[in-house]
Design brief:
With 474 residues, this protein is α+β, with helices and mostly antiparallel strands. The protein folds into 2 domains: 278 residues, Neutral Protease, domain 2 (Orthogonal Bundle); 162 residues, Galactose-binding lectin (Jelly Rolls, Sandwich), CATH 2.60.120. The protein is 25% helix and 23% strand. It is built from 11 helices and 18 strands. The strands form 3 sheets. Strands 1, 2, 3, 4, 5, 6, 7 and 8 form an 8-stranded mixed β-sheet that branches. Strands 9, 11, 13, 14, 15 and 17 form a 6-stranded mixed β-sheet that branches. Strand 13 and strand 14 form a beta hairpin. Helix 1 packs across helix 3 and helix 7 crosses helix 8. The longest helix is centred in the first third of the chain and has 22 residues. It starts with 26 loop residues before the first strand and ends with a strand.
Length: 474
């Protein structure tokens, strides 16, 4: 018997694990082993939505679209809105996996269980709804030789919380199309991603409590996620780690070319489709960027703009041979191409300017407003100290949580700042002085960026051309 339970609400909603029973149905076929109904997903989400002011229908009604049949007690306008969101999400995930949906996904979405006749929901579905949960039950037969689920048909039972129906619909799609949804880290991470995706963009969309939890918790090691024997439905906190990893791998240009084939290989039961075989040679790089993402992300953060440069070659500067680079305003840390030693003094020449918003003033590389410009809008920026990040108090409210990680190193917005990369660790960031001279505070590869909030880089414009020359003792 195969059991797959999940808890929705990590990235886009929060929940708790319910008690539930597995409904068993046996199917018999020639050459096939009898297979029980197996639970493909049990999602839990604490329902925070209030009943609509609109009159509630006397009981559940049916609503349908191209790919969904939804039985629900939601008012007509809300039911149609749900169908629209489900179709948009399905279009995105079916395009990503390259498999157009071929079978109607049947869903029971419940706001008020009291208006549903007692026999209208099968026992496992009703029990999950009673627990403010969702469950996807997939029926089918298992091939005795291959163990593959055949003729799969899924039924979703979900509370009307905004995120739970979409999360469960991802599981239903995977089980009907592929026969399963993969290991826990992938199945739940992608289900959370599925209902957080937006068409044509890679920005982070999640609840503020997810940002607060991940940034205020001790990071869970990468391999502890992908090699874990955790079962689905364990906790919404574990869901957040899986979502974060999948979001990084699916959007970071250093890794997304391998992530989609890995996922398809997992779903189609390819023997070589394992995280270790696909990413083993890049494990240190992924672990570094995963930790960096957890320390800096926020709503609106774009992994595509903060991907680490692993390819640029670095060298030591010479007094008569300056090293040049270009730093763009709308990117994270960028390679200077310079290797520095502690105590070395450098002469820096900077040309160019940048802005921190579409209508913001033009700034010098040192955060100084250039002449004849309109006043700059108020905008704060911080530089993060990776090794000494402060943890958020459990007593903080969501309103008190800042939009960017705070530390004691506030710098002027638009200021050119640097950091040293050495053996997958970063130094504390430091300013590049406007007087054109600075002393290296340590040893490593020098990376630079325009100081701005990490989740507000996309609207920045401009670039600066830099020349680094080792200062001669003569």
């Amino acid at each position: 018997m195969t059991i797959h339970a999940t808890q929705a609400g990590a990235a886009c909603g929060q929940g708790r694990l319910p008690a539930w029973r597995i409904l068993i149905l046996l199917f018999v076929g020639v050459g096939l082993t009898a297979s029980p109904d197996f639970v493909s997903a049990q999602s839990v989400a604490k329902s925070k939505s209030k009943k609509s002011d609109a009159p509630q229908p006397a009981g559940p009604r049916d609503y349908s679209s191209a790919n969904f049949l939804v039985h629900t007690d939601l008012p007509e306008a809300e039911a149609n809105d749900l169908l629209k969101r489900l179709e948009n999400m399905l279009a995105l995930i079916s395009k990503y996996w390259g498999r157009p949906n071929k079978q109607t996904i049947e869903m029971f979405v419940v706001r008020d269980l009291e208006v549903w006749p007692r026999n209208s929901l099968e026992p496992a579905g009703r029990e999950s709804i009673e627990q403010n949960a969702g469950i996807t039950i997939t029926s089918g037969t298992v091939n005795r030789q291959t163990g593959k689920l055949l003729a799969a048909k899924s039924r979703v039972y979900a509370i009307a919380d905004r995120g739970v129906p979409q999360h469960e619909a991802v599981h239903a799609y995977c089980h009907q199309m592929f026969g399963h949804a993969g290991p826990t880290w992938y199945a739940e991470g992608m289900a959370e991603m599925g209902h957080c995706w937006r068409d044509g963009e890679s920005r982070v969309h999640c609840l503020p409590n997810v940002v607060k939890y991940l940034r205020g918790s001790e990071p869970k090691p990468l391999l502890a996620i992908v090699n874990s024997r955790d079962q689905t439905g364990d906790s919404w906190q574990n869901y957040t780690w899986r979502w974060a990893l999948c979001h990084l791998l699916a959007n970071n240009p250093n890794y997304y070319d391998r992530f989609r084939p890995l996922g398809l290989g997992i779903l189609t039961d390819q023997p070589d489709a394992t995280f270790e075989r696909v990413y083993g040679s890049m494990s240190k790089e992924i672990a570094f960027e995963y930790l960096f993402f957890l320390q800096h992300f926020d709503l609106g953060y774009e992994v595509t703009l903060t991907a680490w440069d692993w390819k640029t070659k670095f060298r030591h500067a010479m007094p008569k041979a300056p090293i040049v680079c270009v730093i763009e305003a709308n990117r994270g840390w960028q390679a200077s191409r310079v290797i520095v030693r502690k105590g070395e003094e450098f002469e820096v020449t900077a040309e160019g300017s940048w802005t921190l918003s579409a209508d913001g003033p033009e700034l010098s590389p040192f955060g100084v407003e250039l002449p004849n410009q309109k006043p700059a809008p108020e905008k704060s920026a911080t530089v993060k100290k990776p090794a000494t990040a402060k943890k958020n108090s459990k007593s903080e409210t969501l309103e008190e949580l800042p939009s960017i990680i705070r530390d004691d190193s506030l710098v002027k917005p638009g200021q050119l700042v640097g950091v040293l990369f050495n053996d997958y660790e970063l130094s504390e960031p430091f300013e590049i002085p406007a007087d054109g001279s600075f002393v290296a505070p340590g040893e490593g590869q020098l990376f630079l960026r325009c100081a701005d909030a990490w989740n507000r880089l996309a609207d920045n414009k401009g670039k600066v051309n830099l020349k680094f020359k080792l200062k001669s003792d003569n």
